[in-house]
Amino acid sequence: MTKHVTHWIGGKPWGGAAERKGDIYDPATGAVTGSVDFASASVVDDAVAAATKAFPGWRSSSLTKRSGVLFAFRQLVHEHRKELAGLISSEHGKVASDAAGEVARGLDVVEFACGIPHLLKGGYSENVSTGVDAYAIRQPLGVVAGITPFNFPAMVPMWMFPVAIACGNSFVLKPSEKDPSASLVLARLWAEAGLPDGVFSVVQGDREAVDALLVHPDVRAVSFVGSTPIARYVYKNATAAGKRVQALGGAKNHMVVLPDADLDLSADAAVSAGFGSAGERCMAVSVLVAVGPVGDELVGKITERVAALRVGPGSDERSEMGPLVTAAHRDKVASYLDSGVQEGATLAVDGRLHPVIGGEAPGFWLGPSVLDHVTPEMGCYAEEIFGPVLSVVRAPTYEDAVRLVSENPYGNGTAIFTNDGGAARRFVTEVECGMVGVNVPIPVPMAYYSFGGWKSSLFGDSHMHGTEGVHFYTRGKAVTSRWLDPSHGGVSLGFPVNR
Ligand code: NAD
Questions:
Q1: Residue from 37, 208, 210, 211 whose mutation best tests the ligand 1 pocket (most atoms within 8 A of CB)
Q2: Cα 185 to Cα 88: distance, rounded to the nearest angstrom
Q3: What does the H/E/C string look like for 385-420?
Q4: Residue with the nearest Cα to atom 43 of ligand 1?
């Protein structure tokens, strides 16, 4: 028996027969475990129509009612966190503790959105002119869409929809076709929490569903997270169709280690951030920049730690790192080991030789790998690998290191490891990147700050969640108000100035 995953429209699972479907895999075994319906443009129309119908009622429901639904949703997701983590692990491949972590970080955003009455408070100025008051309010946009990647099937959608819905919008989610099940559990939990039908819908599928959302006249805004080429495509097409867009793209995150850093701490951090979730995190460290003389010692410490990592199925509690998401992705990531060596790098650790718990399982395995003496001209440096391959670059000085990070076309995250507060502060000021860690390798902002990169890691102006998320999903309105009093009177064609 294999599972069947479909859309969620108008408060219930879709009952139609899909024209196209995709396979769902268990990356740990390579087996097909189910199928997912792919939405046609007409299915997207149905979801947007349900969302459009639901919007007026939801936007006019009180803030108390909206935050009440959010609190109920928060409780339900918390109660179902193991179910969600298990599904994520079985379709994505990440280990159970990592899947649980992503659900927890998604819940942080739900908790942030529970405070929507406070977040939507505007400003009020009394008597801006004689007898005239002014105030500012923020109002929802209408139907908004989210398009999300495979690597965080619960957390990335939860960067978007709790805030969008709390602000009074209705939301249509198009999750990754590679791990679609978590989205349907979240939809069911919204319904149980009392969210009116149509306020949250899910359309499964691929490019056809995305294209339909990007040009749909009733979709007011699009949030996207995925690779840079698709982020650019989404930004171009959706803005051309008149929509507000935030499109977060790929990454090449550098971790800079200065000569005075604690090298054991740095090696622990590089291995944790490089190989957690098999490197399939947009904030994974993919380049280690060893400054001055520390390179050899650091690579030695990393190599020791990598040898001890336990690679195995996400369902096995002993596993620290799971398989990659698909066979094609595993092969692409592994190809950088050969091309890196051909271009002059040293393969310090070959993950193809790393043992897998359970023996020679037929899943999409690639162990942790380290390419040393990488230079910026090499393909393994220039391209996003998005897998368990850590590239080590040697930089003679701090200035060389910061230039390397800032000149990289991506600008998602970076980190510096040092005991020199002045150097760290200078790095924070100078580096051209959206998220910076100081002795913290994965500086993912908390829900009440905003997440997003710079340069080719973000197309658009707004980062996700936090204050920028609230602003993205609302429009500002400034009101100037006068209630007539006995002193009014007279026509004036002059421009209004304050008296
Ligand atoms: P992807 O770009 O292949 O897919 C993302 C979404 O776009 C999916 O829903 C997919 O169905 C859709 N899509 C794919 N091809 C499309 C096309 N030709 N036209 C229209 N839509 C299309 O990304 P992925 O492989 O699912 O995820 C990994 C990527 O996401 C990596 O590049 C990673 O860095 C990035 N990512 C970035 C962040 C961030 O915050 N910047 C977070 C997570 C992941």
A1: 210
A2: 11
A3: CCCCEEEEEEECCHHHHHHHHHHCCEECEEEEECCC
A4: 282
The span from the CA of 394 to the CA of 392, in Å, is 7
Q: In the structure encoding, which two tokens stand for residue 291, read together?
A: 């400054």
* Contact of 220 with 103, CB cutoff 8 Å: no
Give the tokens for residue 246.
Answer: 């935030």
CA 27 to chain CA centroid, Å, is 21
Residue owning the nearest CA to atom 10 of ligand 1: 176
Q: Residue 315 C-alpha to ligand 1 middle, in angstroms? A: 25
> Mean pLDDT across the chain, nearest whole number?
97
Ligand 1 contacts CB of residue 149 (under 6 A):
yes
Whole-angstrom distance, CA of residue 452 vs CA of residue 449: 10
End-to-end CA distance of the chain: 76
What kind and span of H or E run contains 158?
A: helix 155-166
Residues in the chain: 499
- Give residue-wise pLDDT tens across range 58-91: 999 999 999 999 999 999 999 999 999 999 999 9
Cα(56) to centroid(ligand 1), Å: 31
Residue nearest to atom 42 of ligand 1 (CA): 282
Q: How many CB atoms lie within 10 A of CB 428?
A: 14
| Catalytic annotation present for 114 | no
Which residue of 5, 38, 151 sits with most ligand 1 atoms within 8 Å of its CB, as the best mutation to test the pocket?
151
- For ligand 1, the distance from its centroid to the CA atom of residue 159, given in whole angstroms, is 15
User: Is pLDDT above 90 for 3?
Assistant: yes
Cα distances (Å, whole numbers) of residue 79 to 70, 84, 428, 453: 14, 10, 39, 32
Residue pointed to by tokens 């970080």: 105
